[in-house]
Specification:
- The structure holds two protein chains of two kinds.
- Chain A has five helices and no strands.
- By secondary structure, chain A is mainly α.
- In chain A, helix 2 packs across helix 4 and helix 2 crosses helix 5.
- Chain A is globular and about 45 Å long.
- Chain A starts with a helix and ends in a 7-residue tail after the last helix.
- The radius of gyration of chain B is 23 Å and the shape is globular.
- Chain B is built from eleven helices and 26 strands.
- The N and C termini of chain B lie far apart (66 Å).
- Chain B is an alpha/beta fold.
- The chains are: A mainly alpha, B alpha/beta.
- At the A-B interface, helix 4 of A face helix 5 and helix 6 of B.
Chain lengths: 114, 449
C-alpha cells in the first residue's frame, strides 16, 4: 500500500467492495487537494473555470496552453510529492481533473496534512 | 511506404494523385478555371493536406484558410471542404463546394496559378499573400535541400499547414522527399508525446512555445535527426535542455511573404545553431540596411505580392523589408535582434526594446520579459515591461521597479512594469504583441490618472 493510502485508510482493505469504496474516498481527497492547490497557485488560470472532477484539462476546461501546462504539472508534482514519468503524459491521464487524480494515485501521492 | 497520417487516418501518397481526376471533374462541372481561386478550408488533417496537394498538382489557384474562418475573400466564388472516403475499397479525397456569400464577380489581377496564404497578423492585421505555384515548390525544395529531407525521415508537423511555416518548411519539403508525415492538430505537450510514442518521428517542426514545454516535461532521451524551430527566438537554456535530450535543433528564419529565408545547416556547430538563424538558403540574398539596421531579403522564390479582399494586387518589391533588425557575420550568418518598430527614442537617446528586456532578464527571479512601446510619456515613447517570474519566485512589480537602476540607464526605465504569469498568444503560437500593447496603453493611462 502506498504511503498516502496508509495515512488515509489507516486500516486493512479486506475486500473488493471496500477497495472500491476506499478508492473513491482517496480520489475525492486528491481532487479536493488539487482544487485547493490550483485555486491558490494558478488562480489566474482557474478563476473562471469550475473545478470539478469532469473539468477537462485542455479544450473546454482549463484551456491550458504550452506554458501553463508546464506550471500545472510542476504545481502538482511539488504539492503531491511525485515525479511523473514521460509515459504518464498521455491524453487519457490528462483528460479531466479526475483523470489526473487517478494518475496521481497511481504514482503514489503523499498528503501529509491527512 | 510514404504516408500522410493524422489521429484518425493514414493514406498513401498515391491516394493524392488518384484523387485529382475526381476533383478536376468537380471543378469543371462548376465552371472553375485554374486561375480562378477557390477557398480551401484547412485543418491539420489528412483530408486537408491531401486536398491541398491535389489542388497544387492540378495547378488550381487556392486560398488556404483555417477551418474556423467565417469570412472568405470576395474574389473567390467557391469555398471547398475536403474529406476522405472509401471508393471500392480505396481511399479517395473529395471536395464539397459551396458558394462564398461574399463573392463579388471581379476578375483576379493575377492570371497564373497561385497559392494564397494569410500572414499571421502579429501586428493586428492579416494580409493575403500570393505565391506562384512553381515558386512555392522551389521555395520548399530549397528547404528540403538545406535540411536534407529524405524518404527515411519520419516528419511530424504539429503546426498549421495553411501557414507558410507548416506548408513551406514542413508539408511540401517532406512530401517532395517522399517521407512519412504525421500531422498533429491542436497540439499540446501531452498530445505530442503520445503521438511520438506511436509515430516515432525523426524530424520535428516545432513552434518555440511547444518546444519549450516539451523540453521541460521530457524525462527520457529520444534521438531525432533534426528539430526545426521558428517563430520566437529560443532561450538559450531551453535550447540546451532540449538538445541534450533530443539532439540537433536548428532555428529557421522566414516569413509568410518569403517562405524560408535562412536556417542553420544541421551540420553547423551547436553554438551557431543556438545563436544564429544560419545563412541564407540557396539563391536567397540578405543585407542589412545601413541606416535603419533592418534586414532586407531578395528571394528568387518569394511571393508575387499581396492581394486585397477584392482581388487587387500589390506587387512584391525587389528587396523585401522584413521589419526585423539583424546582424550578418562574415560567414553570412544572420542573427535577429528584434523588430524595427522596437527601436525608440527616450530622453533623446536611441533605445532598442531588447536592451530593456535583457536588462530586466539579468535580474534574479525573472524568466521572461517582453517590453512594448506605446503612447507618449515625458521621456518620449512610453515603455511597458511584462515580466514573468521564475517558477516559485514571488516578485512584485514594485520590487522590479526598485531594481531597475541596477541594470538599466535612467532613460530605459520602463514607465510601467507588470508581473505576468502567462503571455498571450496568437492561434499560431506566436506572442500576441498587440494584446500586450493594448494592456500597456491601459497601464500607462491608469498611471496618468
Amino acid at each position: 500500500m502506498q504511503p498516502f493510502m496508509r495515512e488515509v485508510v489507516g486500516r486493512r482493505i479486506s475486500s473488493h467492495e471496500e477497495d472500491d469504496k476506499m478508492s473513491a474516498v482517496l480520489k475525492d481527497a486528491v481532487l479536493a487537494k488539487m482544487q485547493r492547490i490550483l485555486t491558490a497557485d494558478m488562480c489566474e488560470i482557474v478563476a473562471a473555470v469550475p473545478l470539478q472532477a469532469d473539468t477537462p484539462v485542455f479544450n473546454g476546461g482549463l484551456e491550458l496552453d504550452s506554458f501553463t501546462f508546464v506550471e500545472f504539472v510542476s504545481v502538482l508534482e511539488n504539492n503531491f510529492g511525485v515525479e511523473l514519468n514521460e509515459q504518464d503524459f498521455d491524453s487519457v491521464n490528462f483528460r479531466t481533473l479526475e483523470s489526473v487524480a487517478d494518475l496521481l494515485l497511481k504514482c503514489g501521492v503523499v498528503m501529509p496534512e491527512q | 511506404m510514404s504516408t500522410i497520417e493524422d489521429e484518425r487516418l493514414s493514406i498513401g501518397y498515391e491516394v493524392i494523385h488518384n484523387s485529382t481526376a475526381g476533383i478536376a471533374e468537380l471543378l469543371r462541372t462548376h465552371g472553375v478555371l485554374r486561375t480562378e481561386a477557390i477557398v480551401l478550408r484547412c485543418e491539420s488533417s489528412v483530408a486537408s493536406a491531401g486536398a491541398m496537394l491535389a489542388l497544387m498538382e492540378l495547378g488550381q489557384s487556392t486560398v488556404l484558410e483555417p477551418m474556423d474562418a467565417a469570412d472568405f475573400p470576395g474574389f473567390c466564388q467557391y469555398v471547398a471542404t475536403a474529406s476522405v472516403h472509401l471508393d471500392h475499397g480505396a481511399h479517395r479525397i473529395s471536395l464539397e463546394l459551396r458558394t462564398n456569400v461574399r463573392w463579388r464577380d471581379q476578375e483576379l489581377a493575377l492570371n497564373r496559378s497561385h497559392i494564397y496564404v494569410r500572414t499571421s497578423g502579429t501586428r493586428g492585421s492579416s494580409k493575403i499573400v500570393a505565391f506562384d505555384r512553381d515558386k512555392l515548390k522551389l521555395n520548399a525544395q530549397n528547404v528540403q535541400q538545406r535540411f536534407r529531407f529524405c524518404s527515411k525521415d519520419r516528419v511530424v508537423i504539429p503546426v498549421p499547414i495553411h501557414h507558410m511555416y507548416g506548408l513551406g518548411v514542413g508539408l511540401l519539403p517532406a512530401f517532395f522527399a517522399k517521407a512519412p508525415i504525421r500531422l498533429l492538430d491542436h497540439p499540446n505537450a501531452v498530445r505530442y508525446l503520445e503521438m511520438e510514442r506511436a509515430f516515432l518521428p525523426t524530424v520535428a517542426l516545432l513552434a518555440a512555445p511547444l518546444l519549450a514545454t516539451i523540453s521541460r516535461i521530457r524525462r527520457d532521451h529520444r534521438a531525432y535527426r533534426l528539430t526545426i524551430v521558428a517563430g520566437d527566438k529560443l532561450q538559450g537554456d531551453t535550447f540546451l535542455r532540449y538538445a541534450e535530450k533530443v539532439g540537433c535543433i536548428t532555428q529557421l528564419y522566414g516569413s509568410t511573404e518569403m517562405g524560408a529565408m535562412t536556417a542553420a545547416d544541421p551540420s553547423e556547430s551547436q553554438a551557431v545553431r543556438m545563436n544564429t538563424c544560419g545563412s541564407p538558403l540557396p539563391g536567397v540574398s540578405c543585407k542589412v540596411d545601413s541606416d535603419s539596421g533592418e534586414l532586407l531579403c531578395h528571394h528568387p522564390y518569394g511571393f508575387d505580392g499581396y492581394v486585397g479582399e477584392n482581388g487587387d494586387h500589390e506587387p512584391c518589391p525587389n528587396w523585401f523589408s522584413t521589419g526585423d533588425l539583424a546582424s550578418i557575420d562574415e560567414k553570412q550568418r544572420i542573427t535577429i535582434l528584434g523588430r524595427t518598430n522596437q527601436r525608440i527614442k527616450r530622453d533623446g537617446v536611441w533605445l532598442h526594446l531588447s536592451e530593456v528586456e535583457e536588462g530586466l532578464l539579468s535580474l534574479n527571479g525573472i524568466e521572461h520579459v517582453v517590453v512594448v512601446a506605446t503612447g507618449e510619456t515625458m521621456r518620449g515613447v512610453g515603455l511597458t515591461a511584462f515580466c514573468k517570474p521564475l517558477e516559485g519566485t514571488n516578485i512584485t512589480s514594485g520590487a522590479l521597479r526598485s531594481m531597475c537602476a541596477q541594470v538599466l540607464p535612467r532613460h530605459a526605465f520602463p514607465d510601467a512594469i507588470e508581473v505576468i504569469d502567462v503571455f498571450p498568444q496568437l492561434p499560431s503560437g506566436k506572442l500576441d504583441r498587440r494584446s500586450l500593447e493594448l494592456r500597456a496603453d491601459d497601464l500607462l493611462k491608469s498611471r496618468r490618472c
